[in-house]
Amino acid sequence: MRVVAAMSGGVDSAVCAARMLDAGHDVVGVHLALSQSAATLRESARGCCTIEDAGDARRVADKLGIPFYVWDMADRFREDVVEDFVSEYRAGRTPNPCLRCNERIKFAALLDKALALEFDAVATGHYARIVDGPNGRELHRAVDMAKDQSYVLGVLDADQLAHSFFPLGDTTKPDIRKEAAERGFSVAKKPDSHDICFIADGDTQGWLTSRLGAATGPIVDESGEVVGEHDGAFAYTVGQRRGLGLKVPRADGAKRYVTQVDPSSNTVFVGTEDLLGVDEIHGSHTRWPGPAPIGEVRLGAQLRAHGEEFAATVRAEGDEIVVRLDERTRGVAPGQSVVLYEGARVVGSATITRTGRSTG
């Protein structure tokens, strides 16, 4: 097959490209330029897409003897990921930009361009597995659960999965670094990138404030009393406890958490821990890497990239789903994603629109 290996400049994508070449594929390395003003150097393990990263990717491609290109997708990334991130926070929701990047950049823009250029597939260094099942290819969790990235790949549909390779899914991270060193890759000990790649200093609140502006508003408790003041409701998310700056403590001294963010009134609501628990989740923008479930089915539901999996009953209704968890959990906010599993297999995903507590 003719395969585009997405090369970020890190150790995972380097070994990914090498393994695809070892498997006999015709491999071309592609680095995505996602920033219109890429920095020269990375800031420790934060950020990505710097000139240094592009150079690291090129050196690996040269060592492998494969063609290497830089594809400029900065405009698409800004519109589909960065601006989406800002608009979601403006609306009081909590987005996951990694899912958006996978859906709209790596497995939409990149894959679409690769197929248009008559490549057969795209390979990435994500930790996940593709397994041949009775209904075609299936997306499964990685062997290394500490690095499993099937959650952020839950946005793929069946056609995208059919044109994807994840050759690292059967290997642990330490073994990947060992393999990179044995292959002589200079990136073998390069630190992993983390947090939000386009907020290199990690200050999400400051970054959002610079784009949305400060907007003072009240922090209100469950009785309706104003107990504090904020500089922008967008900076708060459901389940948050630290950094609230509350001026009126509860009489019993109980800790308080953000329970709701209302952008229309610029109000942040807080309450005690018991008010955070939800067991009913509604979602839209459903994505199915295989057949969509019919009727009510029992599945596992994961609500964060490296979070716990909860037993649940799921019902799909067109582009929407209702997920009823067997037990309540905290800190679930609109804008986040719920990814559904049957064992290790990813069944599908949806963007959370609202949460609640079942009456039964």
UniProtKB/TrEMBL annotation:
GO CC annotation: cytoplasm
Active site: C101, C197
Catalytic activity: S-sulfanyl-L-cysteinyl-[protein] + uridine(34) in tRNA + AH2 + ATP = 2-thiouridine(34) in tRNA + L-cysteinyl-[protein] + A + AMP + diphosphate + H(+)
Alphabetical keyword list: ATP-binding, Cytoplasm, Disulfide bond, Methyltransferase, Nucleotide-binding, RNA-binding, Transferase, tRNA processing, tRNA-binding
Region of interest (Interaction with tRNA), residue spans: 147-149
Subcellular location(s) of the protein: Cytoplasm
Domain of life: Bacteria
GO molecular function: ATP binding; methyltransferase activity; tRNA binding; tRNA-uridine 2-sulfurtransferase activity
Domain annotation tRNA-specific 2-thiouridylase MnmA-like central: ranges: 207-271
Residues annotated as transmembrane: none
Site (Interaction with tRNA): H126, Q336
Described purpose of this protein according to its UniProt entry: Catalyzes the 2-thiolation of uridine at the wobble position (U34) of tRNA, leading to the formation of s(2)U34.
Protein name in UniProt: tRNA-specific 2-thiouridylase MnmA
Organism, as annotated: Yimella lutea
